[in-house]
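for ur thesis appendix - Biglycan-like. copy paste whatever u need, i formatted it the way the template wanted (i think)
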Amino acid sequence: MTKAQVGVLLALAALLAPAAPAAPPTPGGSLREDGAPCPPCHCKDDTLDCTGLPAPRDASWMQALTGWNETGLTKVLLDGVLPSATLAPLPAMPGVSTLSLRNNGLTDIASGAFLALSGLRALDLAHNKLTADAVRADVLRGAWQEDSYEPLSLTSLDLSHNDLHSLPRRALEHTKALRVLRLDGNPLRVLDHNTQAALAGAESLQVLGLSGCGLAALPADAALGLPRVLHTLDVSRNALTAVPRGLPSTLRRLVLDANPVRTLPAGDSLVPPFLHLDNLEELSLSYMPILEEVQVAAFFGLPRLRALSMAHNKALRQVHPAAFSHLGPSWTLTEVSLRNNSLRSLPPRLLAWAGLTFLDVADNPWHCSCNFTTWAAASLKGVNVNTRDRVRCSSPAELSGQPLWDASSTACSPELRDGIPPGQPSLFANALLFVMTASLVVLAVMVVRRLLPDRPPRLYGRAALARSSSVSKDPLYEAAAVDED
Ligand SMILES: *[C@@H]1O[C@H](CO)[C@@H](O)[C@H](O)[C@H]1NC(C)=O
Ligand SMILES: *[C@@H]1O[C@H](CO)[C@@H](O)[C@H](O)[C@H]1NC(C)=O
Ligand SMILES: *[C@@H]1O[C@H](CO)[C@@H](O)[C@H](O)[C@H]1NC(C)=O
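the 3d part is after this line
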């Protein structure tokens, strides 16, 4: 909490204290219970919420809000209420740190629209119709001071779900403190030179949202076109067919969900896709509709990886037993979700199971062979497995629907040993064995008849009898016979 915020809270507390409710100026609108001005909106705590109001005819009521900063209001929500598609300069509201202008159909913004909001930290312009022209540098600037514009104090800017095909090169030059930028759901398609220049210029940017921007690739050396201190990148819901190369090594969190990646590494490539992401701690590879296979050493080069989400990939049937080999000299991976894939079993050496603090393997079609259930019961016993009751067998048919953990005793009963269920396969095997034995016997009889054509069958019978009596001389047999007595 900054000093300013503390100040605002103290002011608010003083204002709300029943003993001496100061009477601030009331420039217009209705009054709050405590006498503070509250235009035709809801005031609650430090928030002025005008969401869902019928659109006022003119913008004059906004001028009535100029006294806000003295009322302790710090959050202003003007979602879906603005009368015009062009945002006029906002009145002075130095106490306001959060401003939301979502869903206003805005197509344009007046120059210097926010310069009177000297305390503004978070600006939400999502779900409008802004094009590149509307986010030019002079929109996002502060007041003119001597010979230059003051920077805006913005740290978070949400421009998601607008109509941006690109960002102007200098769009962010007056927002040097910007740490979070959301561009999700804009039709960017590529990060062109202007967009890259704008992003590279945002020198404090740590979090960038590029989800659902129709990106089929990132620039070959993405690190050069992205901010230098970036630690979180969301490129989910794009058209990426491979993990982008050359991502900045500063990344700590990477979200690649819902991209059409078929294998990891992609295609015939042998280059580990995450090489050089030395600082990455969290990786999400979920909701990938066509991801089928994770190959050997796919996660090579992630020495700090702590959490991996590889869930809801309905086509994922195979994870190579050595997919995580060479993850790093010291194993740091402790949280893993493999939920809702199409995995039938887990390679015993896939992960350092005992070191996991969280594991989710629910909603996979587990094949409950004796081997697998025995291993799972023993190796995953101490692991904090999420939603254990949703970890169920899908095959063999006899065990379908049973919790994996209960299945080992049944799976290892003689009929089901090694996962061969009774029924057709074993019937077939028995039949085959019978036919083979029968043919051998027939063959043997024929051979014997050929070799001994003249001997009377009686002799052969005697010889056999003699041999069988010699069996009774076997010490084991005798011991057994003695026991029987
Ligand atoms: C509130 O804003 C007005 C007009 O900008 C300014 O004169 C006044 O000093 C501000 N008051 C506080 C408490 O920030
Ligand atoms: C499993 O994943 C599919 C595809 O991603 C999704 O549509 C479905 O809702 C998920 N099911 C569960 C139980 O989470
Ligand atoms: C079961 O486990 C044994 C030893 O652990 C192994 O040799 C065998 O191949 C496994 N069988 C199956 C079907 O996985």
